[in-house]
């Protein structure tokens, strides 16, 4: 394909050269990256991205909020120099230290070594790794929720919002202007040099796709962050990627609440999904017996799914919603079957920590699959209160009785009516 043809399918708007004013004395000083097509190995970025950094001028100082990817440092410094001298910078705020936001930081610190650096306590070790031996040369002051620093007539207030999506993440609120710098929260990989949500193209899919790939595995941490954000009088949300959100910020808060919350509720009922695959029917019979046993327990809704009968993605949505899963697989060639591994691999996209997990399956002679599944469930942070159920070939009547009892115990654990017996990996290996 010729270079001309490539250009024609990827029209790339020319970014404006200078800083962009948000409110008087506050500027966007980030960088546009319209050519980016993949981010963090986690998602495709058809519209590229922007790395948003900000400069805030007060009567007694100047703050820089975040930086940009190292490959775009020149744009960042050019925009910064258009609004400030380096010796005016009194504070550098690091809301998140991933390289796309901290890439230009070492050079910024060399140019403005007098600045105090504010970040969350959990960012300290990441900053130490980034700066190496230079760490001790700078004035690094960790901050937590409620801490404030002054720029004279302007105040920066910090909100510690860990795990959205790294441990170090925080938000910074410019109190007098109601401007909330949220870093990756409310971000979109959507590069449009018009920059404001009322000016850019239709970026809604990018906002949701970004949530789906970056935030979804941390939905409970997003909810905790929203608990801190919602009481604030927010006029503008300034994230670190994509459009700045100044049209009805409350609508974005409500949208994030919806994305981070359960789709609907069964009231006080707990939910158990039994998912299985079976080549010759033995694991399927165990699955049905487990379902029957679990269904005897009041207050627990039990559902049964044959993995071969469905697309994978809806099962991921389902598992995100339920309180517990029991996963059934036969052992085939010394392994759990491929569809089960594909399902287990994709569970990294959702929040699984703390859910109940269990494994079961039929086998012929070596029976590795159940243990393998249990190990993966443990790796996903699930609690495994019952050792997996393994049955040789066709389940006997006694095996089916045991499967029903297994189901009853799982449901009782979910309903809080049995004492969990955590499995450790050493015990698994010995079995
Ligand atoms: C192609 C094939 C490979 C198998 N490999 C193993 C194995 O490595 N280890 C084992 O314990 N059982 C093995 N089995 C036996 C099955 O696990 C056993 O037949 C089991 O009952 C099948 O359960 P299902 O009816 O739910 O498919 C194998 C069976 C087949 C058909």
TrEMBL record:
Q: Which GO terms describe its molecular function?
A: electron transfer activity; FMN binding; metal ion binding; oxidoreductase activity
Q: Required co-factor?
A: FMN
InterPro entries, per the entry: Flavodoxin/NO_synth (IPR008254), Flavodoxin_CS (IPR001226), Flavoprotein-like_sf (IPR029039), Metallo-B-lactamas (IPR001279), ODP_dom (IPR045761), RibonucZ/Hydroxyglut_hydro (IPR036866), Rubredoxin-O_OxRdtase (IPR016440)
Read off the SMART domains from this record.
Lactamase_B
Instruction: Provide the Flavodoxin-like domain boundaries.
Output: 272-411
**Which keywords does the record carry?**
Flavoprotein, FMN
Among the Pfam families in the record, one is ODP
The record ties this protein, via PANTHER family, to: ANAEROBIC NITRIC OXIDE REDUCTASE FLAVORUBREDOXIN
Q: What protein family is recorded? A: In the N-terminal section; belongs to the zinc metallo-hydrolase group 3 family.
Task: Name it.
Answer: Flavorubredoxin
Q: What lineage, starting at the top, does this entry show? A: Bacteria, Pseudomonadati, Pseudomonadota, Alphaproteobacteria, Rhodobacterales
């Amino acid at each position: 394909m010729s270079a001309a043809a490539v250009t024609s399918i990827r029209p790339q708007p020319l970014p404006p050269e200078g800083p962009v004013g948000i409110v008087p004395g506050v500027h966007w000083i980030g960088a546009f990256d319209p050519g980016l097509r993949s981010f963090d190995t986690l998602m495709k970025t058809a519209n590229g991205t922007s790395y948003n950094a900000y400069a805030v001028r007060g009567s007694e100082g100047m703050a820089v909020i975040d930086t940009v990817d190292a490959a775009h440092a020149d744009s960042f410094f050019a925009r910064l120099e258009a609004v400030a001298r380096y010796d005016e910078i009194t504070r550098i705020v690091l809301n998140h230290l991933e390289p796309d936001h901290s890439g230009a930081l070492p050079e910024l610190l060399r140019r403005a070594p007098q600045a105090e650096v504010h970040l969350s306590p959990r960012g300290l070790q990441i900053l130490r790794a980034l700066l190496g031996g230079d760490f001790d040369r700078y004035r690094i002051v960790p901050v937590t929720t409620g801490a404030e620093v002054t720029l004279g007539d302007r105040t920066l207030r910090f909100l510690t919002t860990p795990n959205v999506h790294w441990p170090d993440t925080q938000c910074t609120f410019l109190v007098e202007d109601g401007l909330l710098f949220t870093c990756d929260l409310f971000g979109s990989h959507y590069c449009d040099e018009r920059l404001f949500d009322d000016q850019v193209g239709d970026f809604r899919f990018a906002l949701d796709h970004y949530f789906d790939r970056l935030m979804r595995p941390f939905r409970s941490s997003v909810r905790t962050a929203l608990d801190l954000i919602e009481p604030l009088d927010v006029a503008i949300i300034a994230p670190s990627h994509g459009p700045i959100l100044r049209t009805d910020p409350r609508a974005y808060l409500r949208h994030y609440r919806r994305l981070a919350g359960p789709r609907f509720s069964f009231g006080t009922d707990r939910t158990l999904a039994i998912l299985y695959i079976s080549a010759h029917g033995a694991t399927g019979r165990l699955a049905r017996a487990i379902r029957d046993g679990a269904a005897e327990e009041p207050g627990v809704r039990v559902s049964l799914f044959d993995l071969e009968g469905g697309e994978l993605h809806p099962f991921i949505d389902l598992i995100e919603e339920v309180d517990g899963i029991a996963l059934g697989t036969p052992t085939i060639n010394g392994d759990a079957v491929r569809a089960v591994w594909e399902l287990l691999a994709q569970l990294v996209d959702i929040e699984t920590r703390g859910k109940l997990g269990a494994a079961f399956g039929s086998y012929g002679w070596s029976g590795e699959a159940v243990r393998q599944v249990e190990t993966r469930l443990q790796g996903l942070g699930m609690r495994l209160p019952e050792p997996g159920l393994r049955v040789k070939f066709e389940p006997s009547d006694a095996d089916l009785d045991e499967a029903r009892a297994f189901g009853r115990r799982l449901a009782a654990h979910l309903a809080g009516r049995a004492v969990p017996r955590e499995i450790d990996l050493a015990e698994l290996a010995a079995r």
